[in-house]
Design a protein that fits this description.
By secondary structure, the chain is of the alpha+beta class. It is built from 9 helices and 14 strands.
């Protein structure tokens, strides 16, 4: 379902964080039957970041917000709402968003987690946009954060090569200049295919230290690849068509970074130039809900993304769910 929006909600700041520890392809060669050449050829990944044993998703999310504050000088103590997209919460209860609220010293705000897997960040933007347009809220933190290394089976060479940890945060505010508008959104879910990507055996835990070590990501990569090429490419084409834009008008395409082969194939099928696609896959691997803000922020920091640029953010993954956001960048 695509919605064309008349909006005055915009992104006003962005920040990211990745852990210090690097897991390279050479490291993985010593762990499982694989090779750097095999991994790069099939995924485009050269390394990924891994959270410390005592570092959890909420820690990464807080660091991403701190990074945003340091760079943009924004205050977050007065945010009205916090939305965290994650598939790897510290606990089932309390939410990561509640832990972020406490960690940042925010006294009065709503706080929720959402779980839309790799479409989580774009889905969270859509929710925040709706809350801001309601007029009830004025300032919302949207965060995508994952510690996928804690639920990765490092004996399964088909999945352990893919996943890394990281977080990205944006501040969304109402009443900003029109050039920063969220222009259009779309979302589609095909739940019948949900068994192709899932997290096994999740048990509630009371403390972060008690995180369920039996829970693992399970993925049928072949089926997910086929779905992405057909259904996700259709979703992207539909969003652009219904919002009145041609692929050539998009300055930057920021897809979920599942792997480089999927990104290249989506570009080919939608008519978006590969030079327009922003990727974080080489350095960070597949970071699920964090992949889009990581790729976007890298391009903001190096000057590729500029105010006035038209951006298409598009998440897709477990569910099987896809969601897109077309926006005009303003910072």
């Amino acid at each position: 379902m695509e919605k064309h929006l008349q909006s005055n909600a915009a992104i006003t700041a962005i920040g990211t964080y990745t852990p210090d520890k690097i897991l390279s392809n050479a490291d993985l060669e010593r762990m499982v039957d694989t090779s750097d050449e095999w991994i790069v050829q099939r995924t485009g990944i050269q390394e990924r970041r891994i959270a410390a044993d005592d570092q959890y998703t909420s820690d990464l999310c807080i660091r991403a917000v701190r990074n945003m504050q340091e760079r943009y000088g924004v205050q977050v103590e007065d945010v009205d709402y916090i939305i965290v997209a994650t598939s790897t919460p510290d606990n089932v209860i309390p939410s990561v968003a509640a832990q972020v609220q406490a960690g940042l010293g925010i006294k009065h705000s709503g706080a929720i987690d959402i779980q839309a897997a790799c479409a989580g960040f774009t889905s969270a933007i859509q929710l925040a946009n709706g809350l801001l347009l309601s007029g009830v809220y004025r300032k919302i933190l949207v965060i995508g954060g994952e510690t996928l290394s804690k639920v990765t089976n490092y004996e399964d060479r088909t999945t352990c090569i893919l996943f890394g940890d990281g977080a990205g945060a944006i501040l969304m505010e109402a009443g900003t200049a029109a050039e920063g508008d969220i222009l259009a959104i779309s979302s589609h879910t095909e739940g019948a295919g949900g068994h192709h990507v899932y997290r096994s055996g999740l048990s509630p835990s009371i403390n972060a230290a008690d995180i369920d070590t039996t829970s693992r990501i399970v993925q049928n990569g072949r089926e997910v690849y086929k779905w992405a090429l057909s259904h996700v490419s259709e979703g992207i084409t539909e969003l652009l068509r219904d919002s009145g834009y041609e692929p050539s008008q998009i300055n930057w395409f920021v897809p979920h970074n599942a792997n480089q082969r999927i990104i290249d194939a989506l570009c080919d099928r939608t008519g978006i130039s590969e030079q327009q696609a922003l990727s974080s896959i080489e350095r960070y691997g597949n970071t699920s809900a964090a992949s889009i803000p990581l790729a976007l922020d890298a391009a903001v920091q190096d000057g590729r993304v500029l105010p006035g640029h038209l951006l298409l953010l598009y998440g897709f993954g477990g569910g099987l769910t896809q969601s897109g956001v077309l926006l005009r960048w303003s910072i």
